[in-house]
Each structure stands twice: as structure tokens, then as C-alpha cells.
Amino acid sequence: MASGMIEIDSELCKDCKLCISVCPHHLIESSDRMNQKGYCSAVFIEKPLKKEGRKCTGCGLCAIICPEIAIEVYRA
Ligand code: SF4
Ligand code: SF4
Fold it and tell me: Distance, CA 34 to ligand 2 centroid (Å)?
């Protein structure tokens, strides 16, 4: 299976949660930390979930749907 990873620019995020709703492996959630604009930005939470086999495939859905262009996708 393809593998990938993402980086979310927490300062661009406006916590719309669209990326959370589209990730097929549920690898993104809202953080409890506010950014400079007062939004609890989305975070990539793959690390603790890898042992359950939930890995980013680099599909890009999260980046495509993000209205703030806050997500960068890297494919291995
Ligand atoms: S690239 Fe795909 S699998 Fe990876 S975090 Fe984004 S939506 Fe999820
Ligand atoms: S889609 Fe973009 S702006 Fe919306 S929560 Fe995800 S990273 Fe933040």
C-alpha cells in the first residue's frame, strides 16, 4: 500500500474540520491548542495509531478539501 504523511500549518488552520471528515483512516483531529487567531487547529495523529495499521496513504483528500491550503502531503 502507498504510504505518505502530512504537515498541517497550524497558523493557517481555521478549524473547519473538513480534513477530519474526509480522511479515510481518521488520522486527523482537532487539537486542544489554540493558534494565534484563536482556532484549535487540526493535527495529524498517525503516530500512536500506526500499530493498529492506520497509516496515511498520501491520498491527498485532506489537502484537496482544505479551504485554507494549510495541508502539505508527502508521498513515499
Ligand atoms: S493524505 Fe489521505 S490518508 Fe493521509 S491524512 Fe490526508 S486524507 Fe488521511
Ligand atoms: S480543512 Fe484545513 S482549515 Fe479546515 S480544519 Fe483541516 S487544516 Fe484546518
Answer: 13
Residue extents of the structural domains in the chain = 4-75
Q: Between 3.40.50.300, 3.40.50.2300, 3.50.30.10, 3.30.70.20, what CATH number should domain 4-75 receive?
A: 3.30.70.20
Ligand 2 atom, smallest distance to 8 CA: 7
> Which residue's alpha carbon is nearest to atom 6 within ligand 1?
62
Å from CA of 31 to ligand 1 middle: 17
State percent of the chain over pLDDT 70.
Answer: 100
Amino acid at 53: G
Q: Contact at 8 Å (CB) between 17 and 30?
A: yes
Q: What is the Å distance from ligand 1's center to 28 Cα?
A: 8
Q: What is the pTM of this model?
A: 0.94
Are 44 and 13 a contacting pair, CB within 8 Å? Answer: no
